[in-house]
Amino acid sequence: MTVPLWLDAETPRYAPLPGDESIDVAIVGSGVTGLACARSLALGGASVRVVEARRIGSGASGRNGGFALRGTAVPYDRARLPGLTRFTEEALDRIRELAGDAFRPVGSLRVAVDEAELADLQLEHDALAEDGFAVEWRRREELPAAIREHAVGGLFHPPDGAFDQGRWVRKLAGLAHEAGARLAEETRATSLEGTTLVTDRGRVSADAVVVATDGYTAGLLDDLDEAVVSFRGQVLATEALDERFFPCPIYARWGYDYVQQLHDGRVVIGGRRDTDLEAETTREERPTELIQSRIEALLRELVGEAPRITHRWAGLMGYTRDFLPLVGPLPARDGVWVSAGYSGHGNVLGFACGEAVAAAILGALDPRLAPFSPGRTPVARPLA
Ligand SMILES: Cc1cc2nc3c(=O)[nH]c(=O)nc-3n(C[C@H](O)[C@H](O)[C@H](O)COP(=O)(O)OP(=O)(O)OC[C@H]3O[C@@H](n4cnc5c(N)ncnc54)[C@H](O)[C@@H]3O)c2cc1C
Fold first, then answer.
1. Torsions phi, psi of 215, nearest 5?
2. What is the pTM of this model?
3. One digit per residue, pLDDT tens: the chain, 384 residues?
4. For residue 4, how far is its CA from the centre of ligand 1 (angstroms)?
5. CB neighbours of residue 237 within 10 Å
6. Which helix (H) or strand (E) holds 282?
7. 172 CB within 6 A, ligand 1
8. Is the CB of 168 under 6 A from ligand 1?
């Protein structure tokens, strides 16, 4: 029951690291970041090894809500970064081509549950529209019937979409593998000695190392442990429902609650983390009765019945102090790169940043990534 819906499938196996080896680039972590980075590096002619402690996509990339969102975790009007928003929209275009039917280009809808949130959405809408981004306002009466009683209005983001997350991650792994990247499952990196990755299966000597472990970073590098805090998010999935309640991914309460309905009628719903924030500030990847019952209550309110729950799970996401990821070379660690800390918004951003780190290692650093520099002084804001 605690296996995520996305990972509940027969999957191709990739052998553990066979022993010591030398390689151009070693990558730690096989989520969307590590896999996108590996594929791009391999296509660019580099030899690449990905080491994954568990199975492909078994971190947040196989445990999330499946929302494909542009931008960052910070609402557009609060961190007005048009270059980075375009950077993620460009990534969405590539994802659409690569993912095939594991991606549905249905847009996404963020709704406000009260007037205060609605005022925030209005600010975001105006800033996006002013800077030329596609965005549509939704009045309450235009919202899907299932959420009309619970929301006062919303913001529709046309470029976004929904993933069948498991199929997407497996597809990306297949593409990285086909491009020539070597993937090793059940191989845990235990430490870094310069650019040599020490694992429980052997040593990987590399010219560069990319750490792509987001909320699962703990224990590898002290400086990253300080910069990235892990939060737990919980999700559940239902049996297939006949009625169509949610035409696109929908999220509310500043993203704390989220729901989508898959093409087969199943509902995937998660959130309520803020109702027990202290307990959910943890690295323990385990669903709890309290949060699961609250997600279930929300589901009942939305669909007006109690569908059978088939899967319940939890995953970890890495947050930074200013909610922007750390992407680039780590200060004072020659040849060590990081791409992590997406603050719960890494499906598209992680893919985009993984590719961008690959391009930078191959010699073409995208200047739009400067606000993500690991050496930046983060804006002093409390973690939420
Ligand atoms: C419940 C939940 C819901 C979310 N919903 C959304 C959403 O709808 N939309 C969205 O954009 N984002 C969402 N996110 C965030 C998103 O899932 C992540 O930002 C994204 O998946 C990060 O991808 P990644 O590849 O960087 O990291 P991950 O997918 O977490 O992969 C890191 C991998 O590193 C491996 N690893 C860790 N340490 C080691 C080690 N020492 N050696 C070897 N391997 C190691 C882990 O096993 C893991 O597989 C959600 C997250 C959660 C938890």
1. -75, 0
2. 0.97
3. 689 999 999 999 999 999 999 999 999 999 999 999 999 999 999 999 999 999 999 999 999 999 999 999 999 999 999 999 999 999 999 999 999 999 999 999 999 999 999 999 999 999 999 999 999 999 999 999 999 999 999 999 999 999 999 999 999 999 999 999 999 999 999 999 999 999 999 999 999 999 999 999 888 999 899 899 999 999 999 999 999 999 999 999 988 999 999 999 999 999 999 998 899 999 999 999 999 999 999 999 999 999 999 999 999 999 999 999 999 999 989 999 999 999 999 999 999 999 999 999 999 999 999 999 998 865 444 444
4. 13
5. 20
6. none
7. no
8. no
Q: How far is the CA of 217 from the centre of ligand 1 (A)?
A: 10
Assign 28 to helix, strand or coil: strand
Q: Whose CA is nearest to atom 52 of ligand 1?
A: 64
* 53 C-beta closer than 6 A to ligand 1: yes
Query: Kind and range of the H or E element at 310?
Result: strand 309-319
Amino acid at 280: E
Q: Please state, in angstroms and rounded to a whole number, the distance separating the CA atoms of residues 8 and 20.
A: 32
